[in-house]
């Protein structure tokens, strides 16, 4: 009784005191914050020292050790700074006259990973590189990522000229590693863990080298992967210069570091910035470092290509949705590393694996699908007596794809059929497995399981056919690719465009595969991370062809010329097998040849975005934090526009009332004297009128405006309807999808 009482009291005491201590600890715990300050007219963007002194003075009003707390001072991308602060200190700082907003920066951005040049028709005598003699020469692409592998064959600079005079950056590698290809390399890692702060910009992940090679990698011929001939790997702009900014370690990229990286990349003189990273959840633009940094970039004429995210296929999972960014979805390519399954009943299913043993004899072996926890082939769940000498069916999920194979091998199995979950649908991967494997779709997996259940003597084998360029339905939108619209601005259709993002082959740091007894310098990776640098490279090609085009004009050129049909001429589909909608693929699959010569563009200047920001109801102080260093505005005095009226190359129509009119303006970048006719696809229950229905341009760079009037015909209509508007001339077809929300 006595003991009970004592322990009860102690327990109670601890509950109160410990709780209070914990709470205080939490309040005093210091987290990374980005502090946005008022963007007063007198902020000098050229005087870094003065800005840092101002920021330190502000910081020292709440913290004695301002010097050690300050991570970065920003005076170009925004007026503000990043620092380690407690919640109490942030609260105290709110009283400072310069304070606008504190952005918590404790949730890192993630890298978005999970044969493309031939597929995009850049190569060959009729390909873009030959036809236009444009391989991105003189254009500088900045890649914010995990760094790069110095000395990689994809960064060979044979035949490359020195960087253009405007280049102000530097390369933190030694002389032999830095060359006319790899002209810049810097690390910004101050916001992360102490032991990571001083890492050089050397890639220890794969991601940074892979994305950089995909954008601007020099051509590397005759790539051999485990004995399979892969052909050539090359970036989409193989003669563009590369500057890498390391802002990520492992999978994590801290937002104060990303923010500084964007500021540096713009100031160093990059023409294009490639960002294959994102964060889940919707942030308003003034809380989102990529949106804030991206605005500074476009203000300086720098194109920003970003990843849509890998959180698909559910709606409104999109990241990087600001209308001044290019948002890239991921599609499949036609390359397939074929490893098929042949069943005892004669049925054959196409699958993939990169491990294709030469000595495989294709004898039929018993095949099993174990129930319960063993169905996923997690370590410790397989009974050797049930799998020895057999092919084992393993469902995806819980543990890694390659690990499942190891588990099967360790338990004595002879092979594995790796089956997608429903949400993975038909997206398969060519992985470095350790035993014979075929990775098959969800639908095919079900048929294989049906067969196993139907007979006592089920058997199967694998048929290895190596590299094939006939994958069905290519390109199709990957299941993982995040879907729009954004909840922040639903009347801007996002993503904008799709590019190759499934099993993309590109350079990686040299890796030894112990199980294969070989070292590789190229690898297949998947994700919107891989799609994004394809578009960054293509933006570099357009920039080379049209140096005076704005970032919005470059984006418009890509979007209005994108393909909506696949290689077989059928509509591009998504993982469900049905045609992909605008919230999966935006305007469609990028077509670089056509994007060079779009005929018309939907152009946007920074002030159009300012009118838009005022139009979505942001407060003056938030608008001004975003648009800095553009002069501050008062929203009451600008022509605020509602989001659907932003001159975007895709058109969303909110049809709450029976009739809605949308305005757009096109600029003639084709030829003088061209005449365009409006051709429309109109959904049932709706009418669309375009006025004027014909646009004739006397001169180049002439602008003409038109009105699109959408009316309900009084019959019931679905909530979302799809149509399109094409301006068609003798030479060009300028397409905008229309999404109508009733
Ligand atoms: C420079 O870097 C290259 C590539 O990483 C390396 O092979 C070489 O040894 C380095 N040279 C010096 C002097 O550090
Ligand atoms: C995606 O949507 C489906 C169906 O609406 C839902 O069951 C599922 O939980 C969603 N997934 C996520 C990750 O939100
Ligand atoms: C095939 O070769 C691999 C390694 O080269 C070996 O481990 C395996 O036992 C061989 N299989 C057969 C059936 O000979
Ligand atoms: C499975 O677990 C055993 C025992 O812990 C371990 O030795 C083995 O490496 C594990 N296998 C895999 C593929 O993780
Ligand atoms: C690994 O490869 C090397 C060179 O190709 C060869 O000499 C060696 O025998 C191989 N080792 C094994 C374990 O297969
Ligand atoms: C707003 O639009 C009107 C009409 O186009 C124009 O005359 C006026 O100058 C604009 N105001 C601002 C602040 O841009």
UniProtKB/TrEMBL annotation:
GO biological process: proteolysis
All residue ranges annotated as the Subtilisin-like protease fibronectin type-III domain in the record: 645-740
Residue span(s) of domain Inhibitor I9: 43-111
Top-level taxon in the UniProt lineage: Eukaryota
Example GO molecular function: serine-type endopeptidase activity
Active site positions: 145 (charge relay system), 207 (charge relay system), 529 (charge relay system)
Record-linked InterPro entries: PA_dom_sf, PA_domain, Peptidase_S8/S53_dom, Peptidase_S8/S53_dom_sf, Peptidase_S8_subtilisin-rel, Peptidases_S8_3, S8pro/Inhibitor_I9, S8pro/Inhibitor_I9_sf
UniProt key word Hydrolase: yes
Keyword tRNA processing applies: no
Peptidase S8/S53 domain sequence ranges: 136-565
Family in the record: Belongs to the peptidase S8 family.
Listed name of the protein: Subtilisin-like protease
Source lineage: Eukaryota, Viridiplantae, Streptophyta, Embryophyta, Tracheophyta
């Amino acid at each position: 009784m006595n003991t009970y009482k004592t322990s009860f009291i102690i327990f109670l005491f601890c509950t109160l005191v410990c709780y209070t201590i914990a709470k205080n600890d939490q309040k005093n715990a210091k987290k990374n914050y980005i502090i946005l300050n008022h963007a007063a007219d007198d902020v000098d963007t050229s005087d870094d020292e003065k800005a840092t002194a101002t920021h330190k003075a502000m910081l020292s009003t709440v913290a004695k050790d301002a010097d050690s707390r300050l991570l970065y001072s920003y005076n170009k991308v925004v007026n503000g700074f990043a620092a380690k602060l407690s919640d109490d200190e942030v609260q105290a700082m709110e009283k400072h006259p310069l304070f606008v907003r504190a952005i918590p920066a404790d949730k890192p951005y993630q890298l978005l990973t999970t044969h493309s040049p031939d597929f995009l028709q850049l190569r060959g005598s009729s390909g873009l590189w030959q036809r236009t003699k444009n391989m991105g020469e003189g254009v500088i692409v900045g890649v914010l990522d995990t760094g790069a592998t110095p000395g990689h064959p994809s960064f060979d600079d044979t035949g490359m000229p020195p960087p253009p005079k405007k280049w102000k950056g530097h390369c933190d590698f030694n002389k032999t590693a830095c060359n006319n290809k790899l002209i810049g390399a810097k690390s910004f890692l101050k916001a992360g863990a102490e032991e990571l702060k001083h890492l050089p910009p050397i890639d220890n992940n794969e991601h940074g080298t892979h994305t950089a090679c995909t954008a601007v990698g020099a051509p590397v011929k005759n790539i051999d992967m485990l004995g399979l001939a892969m052909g050539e790997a090359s970036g989409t702009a193989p003669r563009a210069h590369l500057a890498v900014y390391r802002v990520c370690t492992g999978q994590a990229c801290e937002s104060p570091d990303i923010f500084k990286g964007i500021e540096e990349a713009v100031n160093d003189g990059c023409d294009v910035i490639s960002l294959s990273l994102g964060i889940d959840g919707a942030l308003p633009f003034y809380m989102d470092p990529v949106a804030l940094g991206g605005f500074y970039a476009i203000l300086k004429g720098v194109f920003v290509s970003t990843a849509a995210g890998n959180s698909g296929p559910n709606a409104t999972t999109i990241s990087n949705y600001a209308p001044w960014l290019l948002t890239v979805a991921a599609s499949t390519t036609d390359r397939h590393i074929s490893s098929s399954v042949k069943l005892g009943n004669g049925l054959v299913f196409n699958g993939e694996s990169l491990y294709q043993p030469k000595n495989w004899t294709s004898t039929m072996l018993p095949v099993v699908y174990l129930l319960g926890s063993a169905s996923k082939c997690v370590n410790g769940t397989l009974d050797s007596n049930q799998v020895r000498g057999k092919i084992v069916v393993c469902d995806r999920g819980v543990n890694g794809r390659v690990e499942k194979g190891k588990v099967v091998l360790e338990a004595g199995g002879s092979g594995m059929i790796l089956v997608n979950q429903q949400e993975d649908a038909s997206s398969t991967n060519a992985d470095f497995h350790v035993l014979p494997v075929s990775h098959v779709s969800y639908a095919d997996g079900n048929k294989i399981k049906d067969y196993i259940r139907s007979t006592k003597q089920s058997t199967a084998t694998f048929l290895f056919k190596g590299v094939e360029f006939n994958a069905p339905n290519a390109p199709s939108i990957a299941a993982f690719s995040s879907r729009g619209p954004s909840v922040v601005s639903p009347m801007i259709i996002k993503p904008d465009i799709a590019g190759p993002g499934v099993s993309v082959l590109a350079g990686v740091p040299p890796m030894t595969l112990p199980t294969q007894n070989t070292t590789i310098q190229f690898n297949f990776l998947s994700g919107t991370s891989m799609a994004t640098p394809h578009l960054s490279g293509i933006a570099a090609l357009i920039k080379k062809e049209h140096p005076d085009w704005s970032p919005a004009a470059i984006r418009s050129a890509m979007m209005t010329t994108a393909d909506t049909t696949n290689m077989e001429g059928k509509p591009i589909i998504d993982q469900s097998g049905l045609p992909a909608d605008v919230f999966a693929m935006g305007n469609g699959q990028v077509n670089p040849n056509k994007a060079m010569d779009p005929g018309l563009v939907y152009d946007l200047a920074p002030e159009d975005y300012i009118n838009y920001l005022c139009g979505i109801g942001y407060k003056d102080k938030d608008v001004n934090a975003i648009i800095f260093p553009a002069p501050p505005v008062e929203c009451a005095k600008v022509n605020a526009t509602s989001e659907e009226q932003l001159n975007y190359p895709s058109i969303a129509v909110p049809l709450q009332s029976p009739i809605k009119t949308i305005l757009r303006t096109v600029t003639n970048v084709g030829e003088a004297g061209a005449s365009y006719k409006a051709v429309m696809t109109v959904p049932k229950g709706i009418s669309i009128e375009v006025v004027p229905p014909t646009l004739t341009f006397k001169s180049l760079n002439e602008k003409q405006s038109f009105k699109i009037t959408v009316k309900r015909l009084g019959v019931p209509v679905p909530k979302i309807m799809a149509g399109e508007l094409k301006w068609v001339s003798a030479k060009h077809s300028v397409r905008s999808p229309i999404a109508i929300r009733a």
